[in-house]
């Protein structure tokens, strides 16, 4: 897609999807039945610019310095009526708060409970998942806000504890989000490579109304992330990069379309090299933003 640029927080350049390109995306997506990928590619126009087309770097802080809830202001743009919740998995203070994160909280039907949160994984070189999740989430936030979306982050920094899995779901529900994505990186076997997208299976009284739209969201993210990042589809779990789950509180308690994106396997050397590369993360943020935009412009 062609792109316009404007100064972003901290002096970075925000890459905005052009109105013309998103109009084309809208026409293509609306002509496609839910659950099916648009013919060819919904982003048939040239893609968002890569890292070499603008400034890139490590995120300094959440754009705009928002407080709890990180409710980013909507602006003018093709996504100005859309609300997106981005959930950076885990948190930097979890390891020092084992009592808190091991407390059981609601996770689904029949009184199901699970631990509040977990510490997450890390690469062999020591890049923590919680740090990676935070940095990539902020990059995605920047791109969506540049197109006018209201973006809510479930945590406001990488130094806190939690939120718990039920609280993360509640943030999306309270925001009445059009889409929610929880960003993670897996800690699979060292021999396994690739990404996968987790979407909720139908549970009566819980996810029955969001299961279908969440599957469509998963398909849009899977397509754009796979095409845009060169990260292969997971070869050690899931079904061609899709995993339907009914045991995750963050999905079971959601009332809005929601998925988990496991961006790669931190325990695999090749995946870890990509996940650790700041330029690759810029490209990944472009791809995730395109996937979310494709879903949001379907209606």
Automatic annotation (TrEMBL):
<dbReference type="InterPro" id="IPR050695">
    <property type="entry name" value="N-acetylmuramoyl_amidase_3"/>
</dbReference>
<feature type="region of interest" description="Disordered">
    <location>
        <begin position="30"/>
        <end position="117"/>
    </location>
</feature>
<protein>
    <submittedName>
        <fullName>N-acetylmuramoyl-L-alanine amidase</fullName>
    </submittedName>
</protein>
<dbReference type="InterPro" id="IPR002508">
    <property type="entry name" value="MurNAc-LAA_cat"/>
</dbReference>
<dbReference type="Pfam" id="PF01520">
    <property type="entry name" value="Amidase_3"/>
</dbReference>
<keyword id="KW-0378">Hydrolase</keyword>
<feature type="domain" description="MurNAc-LAA">
    <location>
        <begin position="169"/>
        <end position="293"/>
    </location>
</feature>
